Amino acid sequence: MSHGNRSRKKNYSAMRMLGKQLQAARKAAGYTQRSLAEELLIDEETIASIEQGRRALMYDLAEQIDQLLGLKGMLVAGVAELPEIDQFPLFAEEYMEHEREAISLSWYDNAVLPGLLQTEAYAYAVMSERVPAYDEDELQAKTAGRIERQEILQRKCPPTLSFIVWEPVLHLGVGGPETRRDQLRHLRACAELPGLTPGCGPGR
User: Fold this and answer.
1) How many Cβ atoms from other residues are within 10 Å of residue 18's Cβ?
2) For the whole prediction, is pTM greater than 0.70?
3) Largest CB tally within 10 Å, which of 24, 38, 115, 204?
């Protein structure tokens, strides 16, 4: 049975990482994209696309490259263990990377509270409203990922943060009365953090 025809969802961040591994191995072996493509009897653009994470590396091709470059099954193992789907889409991962590096952030929300200010219960409730719905494992993973982003608030030298929220958002019963009360208390605590300025846009 050929693994190369197996249907799977695209996982762009993992594909990009696998592409970087291919690129490093190719260069270490002294091949250009063109010369490697010629050896494999495929288009140069195929190699370029795989290395850039725009095209999935198929199992059969990974086997050929492993053998040609003497990689002892490294790429085959990478393809076999590629997660079925990203926890976050690539554009979100790139945004979060910029967020971690930023020295200043300004944020406006008119539907829910900003993710950096959400409690775990509030974040879980927000994620639970998604259509189509996440399964429980996805809900837990995405909620944890959102809370982990708040690490930047506790740094010794945090970024300068400005948040404007449409006032009616504060009155929404996301997650129920207890979740709302805890969230409002959390907002008050966040307002005491250095460099963080919360604000409300009037509802009328």
Assistant:
1) 23
2) no
3) 115
